[in-house]
Amino acid sequence: MDKTQERSREIDAAVADIRAIEQRDGVTRASLAKIRQRLIQLAARTDLFTVQDFPPPAPGGARNSCLYRLAEDADHRFALYANSSLGGYATPAHNHTTWAVIVGVSGEELNRFYDRTAENGVREKGQHVVRQGSGVSFMPEDLHSIHIDAPLLNFHMYGLALEQLHRREFYKPDKHAWGIFPPHSDIREARTGRA
Predict the structure, then answer these.
(1) If DSSP codes are grouped into helix, strand and coil, which group holds residue 36?
(2) For 132, phi and psi rounded to 5 degrees?
(3) Which of 120, 131, 179, 191 has the smallest set of CB atoms within 10 Å of its CB?
């Protein structure tokens, strides 16, 4: 079996296990912890997920980070992406409106966690560095931001594909207001047998 076939087999097995976890346990913090552990197991296959396989955007371009679609069901559920970044990338505090799990393959991604305040703002309540062997998980309403200083590759998995998430909110601290995230502009198809 070549590397592409083995990668596809490992992704399919992981997504099948994750589908089964959600079907059996629903969407809870405990079930998301199980999903996170299964993705950490997949991310341990660093031979199958390298920066050479999933290169970041070229230096000097408009974006420092891109997503590769590794899996997505026909109904747009269980969407798995490889996030490949040059570094120098960050997001504002935001939610997902679906469950989400991020685990490290290589490099480090700082995640900051927030609560909404009574003044309709955000207050940081903690942080975690995602790296190989670790990850974070989020319920649909949870708020976080990501901060990437150096090159990395990691997995982002969502209960529903990013293009289907039309109400993702993000906080604009300069305006003390909330906005709606625009659709992600650089998702590259990486599913086996897809153009």
Answers:
(1) helix
(2) -50, 130
(3) 120
In 3D space, the residue among 5, 25, 37 whose CA is nearest the CA of residue 157 turns out to be: 37
Q: What is the pLDDT of residue 59?
A: 87
- Give the predicted TM-score (pTM) of the model: 0.95
Say which CATH topology domain 3-189 has: Jelly Rolls (2.60.120)
The answer to whether the beta carbons of residues 150 and 108 sit under 8 Å apart is yes
For β-strands 109-116 and 122-130, DSSP reports them as antiparallel
Instruction: Select from 83, 96, 57 the least CA-distant residue to 147.
Output: 83
pLDDT of residue 194: 58
Query: What is the SS3 assignment for 121?
Result: coil
Q: What is the pLDDT of residues 141-191, one digit of tens each?
A: 999 999 999 999 999 999 999 999 999 999 999 999 999 988 776 899 999
Residues 6+ apart with CB under 8 A from 59: 86
pLDDT tens sequence across 45-74: 999 999 999 999 988 888 889 999 999 999
